[in-house]
Amino acid sequence: MSYEVIWEPEALAQAERYARDDPAGVRQVFTAIGRLADNPRPDGAFGQADVLRIHVGAYRVIYEISDQQVRVSVIHLGHLR
Length: 81
Prior knowledge:
By secondary structure, the chain is α+β, with helices and mostly antiparallel strands.
């Protein structure tokens, strides 16, 4: 079963801001987020049951999983400092 992946407006705005200075890094994030459609709970993800965080390069991604709606919602993208 494949999950639908959606970006909440604030997370997408954060990605657009980071892409100005680091387009390759943000492309990496989008690739990793796309993989969540097939495996929303990958090794290395941590957090609570339905709200998880992964690190992708210099970024952290926080997302929420809804098994009932078969959806992964990206809710935050931040830069690791």
